[in-house]
Amino acid sequence: MTSTTKLAPATLPEFDVVVIGGGPGGYISAVHCAELGLRVALVERERMGGVSLGWGCIPTKAMLRYATIVDALRCEKIPGIRISGLTVDYAAVHKHSRDIADRLVMDVNRLLLDNNITVYRGHAMLAGATDVEVETMDALYKLRAKNIILATGTSAANSPLAAYGAHILTYREALDRPVLPDPLIVVGAGPVGLECATIFAAYNRETLLFESSDRVLPNEDHDISAAMAEALSKSSVKLHTSCEILPTSVHPDEPVGRRVALSVRNTVSGELRVHYAEAVMLAFGHVPNTRDLGLEKAGVVTDEHGYIVTDEYLCTNVPGIYAVGDVTGKPALASVAEAQAHYVAMQVSHGEGLRMPGNLAPVYANIPHYIYSSPQVAGVGLTETQAIARGREINIRRMPFKTSLAMNRSSNSFDGFVKVISDLDTDRVLGVHMIGPNVTELLPQLAFHGGHGVRADDLMHAIQSQAGLRDPLRHALRELEGLELHGG
Length: 488
Ligand SMILES: Cc1cc2nc3c(=O)[nH]c(=O)nc-3n(C[C@H](O)[C@H](O)[C@H](O)COP(=O)(O)OP(=O)(O)OC[C@H]3O[C@@H](n4cnc5c(N)ncnc54)[C@H](O)[C@@H]3O)c2cc1C
Known about the structure:
Blueprint: E1 14-20, H1 24-35, E2 40-44, H2 50-54, H3 57-75, H4 90-114, E3 118-121, E4 123-126, E5 131-135, E6 140-150, E7 154-156, E8 168-169, H5 171-176, E9 184-187, H6 191-204, E10 207-210, H7 222-233, E11 237-240, E12 243-245, E13 251-252, E14 260-266, E15 272-277, E16 279-282, E17 286-288, H8 295-298, E18 321-323, H9 334-350, E19 369-371, E20 376-381, H10 384-389, E21 394-400, H11 405-410, E22 417-423, E23 429-436, H12 443-448, H13 456-462, H14 470-480
Helix pairs in contact: 1-9, 3-4, 3-6, 13-14
């Protein structure tokens, strides 16, 4: 259990640090500050653990694990396993994922308690450069802080489609439901849309996925998008790209009972089609949680989209006020929020005016990214298009995973490939992009070696193990080095 100090509104408890937001950016900052000997308060208005523990990283991955198994049992011929009628129970998987998420939230609460962090359950607002007001169910608390860390995250953006009521769901509303709407349409084929569509399709048999751009995962390397489209064409996720959703044509309850009719125009062919679904999940558009945060009272500057502007040390323009996590507009990943949280805690504990060395600050250029869809996607560094746009002369090697003996032996599923992009002049690896079963497992090694900046021959020597996923990566690097494919 966490502690909530009920104080008379007039008293002004002082802390070394007040952290606003209990997601990975916030609670990790708070715990690390406390470990460094600071007196810390944390304010959370909703669920400790934020999006990451409540809906994002943890619940989706718990469900994706089982979705992948369901997919494999349906689609693959697995030696030694014969299935004569597969029954799936989404409600049970949903409950399992909620149980895991709840346990982790309890762990976080315990961590905060063990570190003597004072927790306030309510909405926090800045009341000045060193003052925070917290509105709880039954009181208004005023806190004073030498330092304030803003870690308020983002929320799903409002969409005009939301006007069509209960049929239109945010990702949180969709993931909160123990019963899947059937059929279900997902709009937005980025990482969140694709992961959710993978889960839903395993249990609903068919999920429609609409994307406005001309390819799935538009921010990935174009070869990865093409391979994902091919993989989806053999799955229960039905992908439609170049789609324009016409908001005015959504008619709740018409024409088929409880279903919604969604008019979708193909922006290339001009074809207009009406699709019916019990619900539509919107998986695009986020807004920073900076409204009603009192930023103007402290004079904290935001960019034109409302994200908090920080320098490389995560300092805002107001001395003593820092920001971490999704609210900074940096890549929206819990891993980024966590790296920032550790850094900012050291920065705060150094004291006013002292700066931690810049080379310890999080570096955003080569953050590994990963999508736990089926097949998985993972990568680090520049895509082919980005490398060319930066005027680099590049060398490219693609190596299919079917060259890996272990993969061939263990799976009949989509094989996938690794694509390595290097600089023709310097041999430096500019980007590595992978699609296939379990490719996310290769990321730690690539991230460790920096992806961008390491020479292809150094990376080749670092990729040691054989007969696993690393084998094709090693072969691609050998080819880049002009070495024989099957040499030692
Ligand atoms: C479906 C999905 C899957 C994802 N999968 C992954 C993944 O596999 N790996 C990964 O690294 N990332 C993943 N992410 C992204 C990850 O969840 C976010 O990057 C991460 O949660 C950001 O952490 P944060 O602390 O910045 O913000 P949040 O987690 O959003 O936490 C912010 C907290 O601040 C609270 N808050 C806001 N305003 C106030 C206020 N005024 N007063 C008090 N409290 C306030 C909110 O209630 C919230 O709890 C996923 C996201 C989604 C949506």
